[in-house]
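Hey everyone, long-time lurker, first post.

I ran two proteins through the pipeline my lab uses and got sequence/structure pairs for each. Pasting them in order. The first:
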Amino acid sequence: MRGIRRIKGTAQREAQALQRDDLFLVLERMGDCPIDIRDKALLLIGFAAAFRRSEVVGLYCDDIEHFRQGIVLHLRRSKTDQDG
C-alpha cells in the first residue's frame, strides 16, 4: 500500500490554522497565574510570528532580543532551514 501511495500520491491532511477571533477567545478564558501568563505569551508570539509548533517550543530566552520598538526572535532551526 505504501508503494501505491508513493506512486499515485495522496493529499496530505493539513491542520486548520487558528483564527484571530478564536485566539482572543482562548486568551480571555485563560487565568492570570504565572503559567497562564507564560502560555499566553507563547500563543501570541507563535501567532504574531506565524511559527510552527516545533519552532515555538524550540525558543530559548537567549533567542529574544529586546528593543524599544519591540523584540527580535532568533529562530535556531525550522522546517525550511534545518541547518539553522
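...and the second, right after it:
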Amino acid sequence: MTFGFLIFPGLEELDLVGPWEMISMWSKHLQGPETCLTVAQTRDPVICAKGLSINPSAAFSGCPQLDYLLVPGGQGTREQVNNDVLIRFVAEQARGCRATLSVCTGSFILHRAGLLAGRRATTHWSSLARLAELGGVEVVQERVVRDGNVWTAAGVSAGIDLALAFIESVAGETVAGKVQFGTEYFPSSRRYGDLHQSPQAPAYLRRC
C-alpha cells in the first residue's frame, strides 16, 4: 500500500504533519502502508503557510497510483482550486484510490475535483458557509466525517483525529490504539477562554 500526502505552497503545516505522524507510525511499526510519500507538482521545495520548507518525495508526473491520498488545507488552497494540473492529479488519483482524505480547507480541493458531489463533508469552522455556498455537498459541523471512501476533517488539529479514525477503519481499534498511545495523543479536555461557546463555533465544539 502507498499513502500519498499532497503538498503545495501555503499549506497549513499541522494539516500535513499531524496525519503524517499517525500514518507513518502505523506504517513503520504496525504493518501499515509500505510507503508514505509527499507529492507535489514538481520536486522543488514547497514553502508552507508558516515557513516550513518540504522537499517532495515525488512529482505528479512520476507519482505511482496511490492507495490513499490525503489533501491538507491552508490559505494555499484558495489558489490551488484554480490549478488545473493539481485538480486533475487529485481527480485521476482518486479514481484508483481506496480512500481520499482532506483536512481543513483541503475539502475545497476535493470539491473542485468533483469528489464531494452528493456527499457529506466538513471543513474549518470559518469556511463551513463558503463550502456550502459551492453547492452539491451536504456540509456538516463535525470534527471528522466519512462518506463512503471520502473522508474530511475540520480545521488543522482535526487531521490527527481523522488519521486515527481512518487507521481504525482499516486496521482495527487495537492498532489505532497503539498509534494513539505511541504518540501520546490524549488531548486535554481544558477549554481556554470561552470561544467554544460563541455563535461562530462549530456544533461539535459547542457540545463539548
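Reply from user beta_strand_b:
Welcome! Quick read of the second one: The two ends are 36 Å apart (CA to CA). The mean pLDDT is 97.
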